[in-house]
Inverse folding.
């Protein structure tokens, strides 16, 4: 799917209201594609249509998919598309058991893939899944440099062992692993004519293309940055996972690249993590850029992260050379992500 021949081509992006999905959608629209986005309700994307997508409304199609776990939920949505980018994950963090958590994620990924296989049509070239480093990293391995060849076998086994006592974070990691395994099993069994690929980002940061009306509605990975910037707590928030970061704009670009390069991306995973971006690092960056904002917690300046926001010696690290080579550039650094995000957050002050 060449970006020079985008006119008239439709790309389906599931969960279009999401932080990553909405950024992917804007990239596609800027390239000239027609965007077909799915959401749970027909009007939930109104803010996008009146905001980030307002200059492209003639090339935006919105489809309601109330429950993506129902077989055939995407049968109509996939018809006629050239690519499917599946970012949506039907995860409810109030659920606390394997049977109520992991199979739901698997059903969502497998369901849209089966719909694409049966109903999209012969013009379909690419299927791209938003996976996660959670499907790659094994918390028990340290020190270790993870690559796309690695799989998280720890979280699933541990979650099953703990049963009803398994924490939501562990179940989330297991769900991302099993959902991605499902698409590769599908590829092996059905051998579709279109490509299948997965993007595995770390903690996604950077400015949202469509900020929610209030800070309380921010994406989970942006809330720590808001907590630091707003000074809502006198102490720094905890880091998310291993604090491996990547900018949402890089993540979006990788999804679009996979969709546009079906031959190269087919059967491939793309790990995306640029280093460790901690709340302490965010506080240091923001205090320097906003010296008048005395609310920003001080913490222990210079601690808990490496110069240049790289990987600490003797710990876990992630090799993103494959994704960088595909994009033909380095990823954005943490300070740029944080400062660009803060510019968006100024509306909430």
């Amino acid at each position: 799917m060449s970006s020079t021949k985008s006119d008239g081509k439709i790309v389906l992006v599931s969960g279009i209201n999401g932080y990553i999905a909405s950024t992917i959608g804007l990239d596609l629209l800027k390239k000239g594609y027609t965007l077909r986005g799915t959401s749970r309700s027909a009007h939930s994307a109104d803010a996008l249509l009146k905001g980030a997508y307002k200059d492209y409304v003639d090339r935006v199609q919105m489809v309601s998919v109330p429950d993506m776990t129902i077989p055939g939920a995407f049968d109509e949505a996939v018809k006629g598309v050239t690519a499917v980018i599946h970012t949506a994950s039907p995860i409810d963090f109030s659920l606390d058991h394997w049977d109520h958590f992991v199979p739901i994620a698997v059903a969502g990924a497998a369901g849209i893939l089966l719909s694409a296989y049966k109903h999209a049509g012969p013009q379909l070239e690419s299927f791209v899944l938003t996976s996660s480093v959670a499907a790659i990293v094994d918390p028990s391995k340290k020190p270790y440099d993870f690559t796309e060849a690695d799989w998280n076998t720890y979280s699933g086994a541990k979650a099953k062992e703990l049963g009803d006592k398994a924490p939501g974070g562990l179940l989330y990691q297991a769900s991302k692993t099993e959902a991605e395994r499902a698409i590769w099993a599908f590829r092996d069994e059905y051998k579709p004519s279109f490509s299948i690929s997965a993007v595995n980002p770390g903690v996604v940061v950077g400015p949202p293309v469509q900020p929610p009306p209030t800070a309380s509605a921010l994406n989970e990975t942006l809330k720590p940055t808001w907590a630091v910037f707003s000074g809502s707590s006198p102490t720094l928030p905890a880091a998310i996972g291993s604090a491996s970061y990547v900018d949402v704009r890089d993540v979006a670009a990788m999804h679009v690249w996979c969709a546009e390069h079906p031959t190269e991306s087919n059967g491939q995973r793309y790990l995306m993590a640029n280093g460790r971006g901690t709340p302490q690092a965010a506080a240091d960056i923001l205090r320097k850029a906003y010296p008048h904002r005395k609310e920003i917690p001080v913490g222990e300046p210079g601690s808990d992260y490496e110069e240049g926001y790289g990987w600490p010696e003797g710990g876990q690290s992630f090799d993103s050379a494959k994704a960088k080579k595909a994009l033909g550039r380095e990823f954005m650094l943490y300070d740029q992500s944080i400062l660009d995000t803060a510019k968006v957050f100024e509306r909430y002050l």
User: Anything to note?
Assistant: The longest strand covers residues 195-201. The chain has eleven helices and eleven strands.
